[in-house]
Every structure is written in structure tokens, then in C-alpha cells.
Specification:
Blueprint lengths: L1 H27 L14
Amino acid sequence: MDAQLSAYITWPLLLGLYWGLIVTALNANPYRRERPERERDI
């Protein structure tokens, strides 16, 4: 039972870390920067 409990605890942590890396990678991607669309009207 200890192996199952450790698996239930470890997998969400690993998935959370993996998702955190994906989100930070997408946010750091220069192609997804906030484009100033309002400044086009000037």
C-alpha cells in the first residue's frame, strides 16, 4: 500500500512540475508577447 500511496502523491507533483515548466516556457516565448494593438491607431 505504501507504493500505491507514494504513486498517488508523486504523480500529481510530477505532472504539476511538468505543467509549470510548460506554462513558463509558453509565457517566456517571444512570439506570444502581448502585442500593443491599441498603438496601431496612432
